[in-house]
Amino acid sequence: MRRELQAQGKEVPPPEISEVSDPNVITPGTEFMEKLSQALQYYIRARLNTDPGWKDIMVILSDANVPGEGEHKIMSFIRAQRCMEDYDPNTRHCLYGHDADLIMLALASHEVHFSILREDVPLPNQAETEGKPNKPYLFLNIWVLREYLEIELKILDPVCEPNIERLIDDFIFICFLMGNDFIPHIPSLETHECAVDLLIEVYKTTFNKMGGYIVNTDKVKDKHGSYLEVSRLEIFFHELSMYEEKIFLKRYELKQDFLQKEYRKMLCEASESERPELRRKLDDLLFNEDHPYDRIRLGLPGWKSRFYREYFRVETSNEIGNLQSEMVMFIPVYSFILMDPFPLRCGKCYFADVPSWTWYYPFYVAPFVSDLKGLSQFQISFALDKPLRPFDQLMAVLPLQSWLKLDLPYCYCCKFMGREEYYPKLQTDINGKHFLWSGISEERLLASTKAVDEELTMDEMRRNTTRQDKIFLHRNSNALAHMNGVIAQTSHCPLQKLPIDSATSGIGGWLSPDDNAGGLSSSFFPSPIKNLQDITNDQAMSATFFNPEAVNPTPRLLSNVRVPDKTVTGADISKRPLWHTYPGSRPPPPMVQRPDSIWKPSTPATPREEHKHAGTGWAGRGRGNNATAAAQAQQLATRSSSYGHGTATDTPRSSSSYSYRKTSFHRVDMPRSSWFDNEPGDAQPRRW
């Protein structure tokens, strides 16, 4: 990213100094993560011993050796607890993290009193060049978001009774089409193109035609996936596919416009002697129809055949048809990610138990929405299995350059390091992405790691095991007296797992003794960190915690929940046109109502232009003396626009949202013929 900013001539922020030798140390199985777990246990015990505010609370620690992602383990705990008979529906939750799916996870919980805290991370082109000591934070209340969704998802004359909980479930499901870190996104749906607007619009206009909701989470435990109304889903996909080619065509035109602007910029910056040769090279590179730089050209006739031929090396229509049928396996992926983790095996899921740890979508790209047909032929089922051990996962994800920086088991280094069979040189295709991720054969990996298991030291064997959550509380906690008794009991019965009384303790589940003498501290806890004092009079207790299974999940608000008063109205929601319906990448300005026409139809604001840095650009000719530059630009536009969609004069519309000057003009909402003022003597409006 820093090299890209430098190449674009932009100011580059100073590099951040990392406190670790390799960021891959933050991976389960490393010695760093083991030390982090010990440091967290020390911190929890220190707080319980010294901070009065911690005296009557309990802390659950789920470290890197407990399988699953942190936010999904937290959500698994919340969903399991809300199934308990004594659960308080007005319990408040606050989740901190940067992952984009935190909002979806919170919505899927159907818990009203949910908030999300995160740092306000600027976009790459908005990054500050000087570090600030205090970072701004964002705080989102889910109950307010639910109000917005209730207004935004309102269906006109619905065929069934409106249910905001089911509308939210469907909203979560259709947003999966934009992808997450578990699955690739549908090619025609990009978040930065406001794809969520299109999904909502298609859903609302198709709802009655579908006959109701897509997701029925009351049946989420069904092993055959009947909680997905596949026939309705096919109708939704069909309606969504009507926009696919329009989106691809606009992207193509925007890319062509960008190339034309770069083409002009490079020619203008070149000397007179360099221009002929530069023009020839640029024409051959960018506008050679026999050997185009973009071999797929999504949106132009034949784009789908070119896509499958380029990415999958299939030629005949039968081969393409068979591949399209295989890629419809994308639908079982959605069935997979709707499911919430088991207490002990947390995966990237949302509503029910994770069905498999080894099943995966076998393609690097998602199918086109127009290919998602014949969905009812698929029987959705998964084989229940176990997650990888920490070292197995470590070997699966570590790049070769991280081996020398991390303290890895010696036997693993001898087995894997430098072996070409485990680190082959591959030709990669990043498909427009900035980062490379790949996969290896799981069977081959596990066979190799199993062969060296006996050579692990005791500490390494401990790091290579999956664990359970740990719960910590103060020995004299008033609110958790029952749990104190359970911990004392389990310390005398090491194999016993006793239930927690949720009515008196506030949570449900089971306890058993942990590795620390059944959780009964010996009043001394050594510090795992240099220069920090040992805890000499430790009053904290700990035990292994087992989360209860969510036997009957409730995908709706619980009874007796107190919903905050509504504060959002329809006036708080501003409508914007769908991305593919307006020219350029920026939406037109909103319609403005004048004070003197309050009882009249709304009219657009008076068109105007903003001239910035007038007199710069275009070899210094400026806006008032640019006849030569205009003629040259018109000639170049005619040549460069002939690729893909006719000449500049034949093109029905331009997809540029601003002029071809680098920073001179910003286009506003006005007729194309008046994008720029005519110069004296101009017979026709000037177009760039």
TrEMBL record:
<dbReference type="GO" id="GO:0004534">
    <property type="term" value="F:5'-3' RNA exonuclease activity"/>
</dbReference>
<dbReference type="InterPro" id="IPR027073">
    <property type="entry name" value="5_3_exoribonuclease"/>
</dbReference>
<dbReference type="InterPro" id="IPR041412">
    <property type="entry name" value="Xrn1_helical"/>
</dbReference>
<dbReference type="Pfam" id="PF17846">
    <property type="entry name" value="XRN_M"/>
</dbReference>
<feature type="domain" description="Xrn1 N-terminal">
    <location>
        <begin position="16"/>
        <end position="120"/>
    </location>
</feature>
<feature type="region of interest" description="Disordered">
    <location>
        <begin position="1"/>
        <end position="23"/>
    </location>
</feature>
<feature type="region of interest" description="Disordered">
    <location>
        <begin position="568"/>
        <end position="662"/>
    </location>
</feature>
<dbReference type="Pfam" id="PF03159">
    <property type="entry name" value="XRN_N"/>
</dbReference>
<feature type="region of interest" description="Disordered">
    <location>
        <begin position="669"/>
        <end position="688"/>
    </location>
</feature>
<protein>
    <submittedName>
        <fullName>Uncharacterized protein</fullName>
    </submittedName>
</protein>
<dbReference type="GO" id="GO:0005634">
    <property type="term" value="C:nucleus"/>
</dbReference>
<keyword id="KW-0540">Nuclease</keyword>
<keyword id="KW-0378">Hydrolase</keyword>
<dbReference type="InterPro" id="IPR004859">
    <property type="entry name" value="Xrn1_N"/>
</dbReference>
<feature type="compositionally biased region" description="Low complexity">
    <location>
        <begin position="624"/>
        <end position="639"/>
    </location>
</feature>
<feature type="domain" description="Xrn1 helical">
    <location>
        <begin position="272"/>
        <end position="573"/>
    </location>
</feature>
<keyword id="KW-0269">Exonuclease</keyword>
<dbReference type="GO" id="GO:0003723">
    <property type="term" value="F:RNA binding"/>
</dbReference>
<feature type="compositionally biased region" description="Polar residues">
    <location>
        <begin position="640"/>
        <end position="652"/>
    </location>
</feature>
<dbReference type="GO" id="GO:0000956">
    <property type="term" value="P:nuclear-transcribed mRNA catabolic process"/>
</dbReference>
